[in-house]
Amino acid sequence: MEGFPAMVLLFVMLGGTAASVPQPRRHKRDWLIPTKKLKENFEYSRGTYIAKIRSDKDEDATLYYTLLGPGASEPPVNLFVVEETSGLVYIRGKLDREERETYILTGVARFNNGSGAESRIDLRFDVEDENDNPPVFVPVPPATVKESSPAWTLVSRITATDADKANCSHSKIAYSMVKQEPSDGTDLFFIDRQTGSIYLKKENMLDRETQSSYILTIKGTDMNGAPGGNTGTGTIQVKVVDVNDNKPMLDKDEYSCSIVENTANVEVMRFKVLDADEEKTDNWLAVFDIVSGNELGTFSIKTDPKTNEGILMLEKPVDFEETPDIKLGVVVSNVAPFVGDGGGAGAGGGAGAGAG
Ligand SMILES: *[C@@H]1O[C@H](CO)[C@@H](O)[C@H](O)[C@H]1NC(C)=O
Ligand SMILES: *[C@@H]1O[C@H](CO)[C@@H](O)[C@H](O)[C@H]1NC(C)=O
Prior knowledge:
By secondary structure, the chain is mainly beta. It folds into three domains: about 30-130, Immunoglobulin-like; about 135-240, Immunoglobulin-like (Sandwich), CATH 2.60.40; about 250-355, Immunoglobulin-like (Sandwich), CATH 2.60.40. It contains no helices and 26 strands. The chain has strands at about 5-10, 35-40, 50-55, 65-70, 80, 90, 100-110, 120-130, 135, 145, 155, 160, 175-180, 190, 195-200, 215-220, 230-240, 250, 255, 265-270, 275, 285-290, 300-305, 310-315, 325-335, 350-355. The strands form eight sheets. The chain has a four-stranded antiparallel sheet with strand order 1-3-6-5, with no helix packed on it. A hairpin with a 6-residue loop joins strand 23 (about 300-305) and strand 24. The structure holds 2-acetamido-2-deoxy-beta-D-glucopyranose (2 copies). One 2-acetamido-2-deoxy-beta-D-glucopyranose (NAG) binds near residues 61 and 111.
């Protein structure tokens, strides 16, 4: 036996009999100890050992075995225990791979006088994964998408994590859309099953003026979506961003008013504007122009930024005898250029204003 390490680690099948115990052979390479796989969440029965350590020196004297390392002498203490004189290793308690995937213990044999009988031997246990964790969604900030966006516009991406073993089906998540709120029965969005990317389904489906925000509920199923996979859900808010798809409209086609002779720098009248786009934005703010009847620069027009009204100002005194009747053409548009074909006709609202 000289020249060979005498400490032997035997791996024994669970519930094994003597016949199923592999017999180590006396070749140096045979002392390399294979990793033993253990099941996660499994209740190993108390009477069944999972391994055996043994030194050949037990032929001459009684040996006392101990285990060192995390899981034995260090936390979690005594999860693995060795029967002192037989060298049989037992496990006390269930294993959680997500807590610890590998245990590397050191087996020690001593004589009864306390001195070490052998060099130490590592025992390695790997915990096999069980699919015991559901997908957990990572919170995402609200997404934004412009109304009138084309089909396949990427809206956002939502993903989930899964604590089970990486790169295996236990953590392979398939995504699906389970709910869109509000909904009139038409699905506006779809999700890429593998990536979690959310896209717009068809073009011109969103209209901020009708609905400015949606809540989508997404389901993640591990086992790549197979029946029986664990599931988790997450939500994402989608905000519809305004575009200038509504033209400003005046409340009348024609206005009339009177002005006082020989006055100037006074407000003559106001034009009320209706615009369905988002208030206080360039898509809503009105810009007025006098397009006819003001060749002499008698009037000016500006916008009240608070009310969006057009304010017609008399800049120069008018001689009533010369011009008893004045007709002005006024057009209104927005600060932002018009896109799409929302409400309104022609190039913005227009009106005639007569002053006399
Ligand atoms: C302990 O006992 C063993 C076996 O009997 C012996 O070989 C060894 O020398 C002893 N050690 C001491 C320190 O007494
Ligand atoms: C999983 O696979 C990816 C890509 O193939 C690799 O980068 C990563 O290291 C793997 N992770 C594990 C834990 O094996």
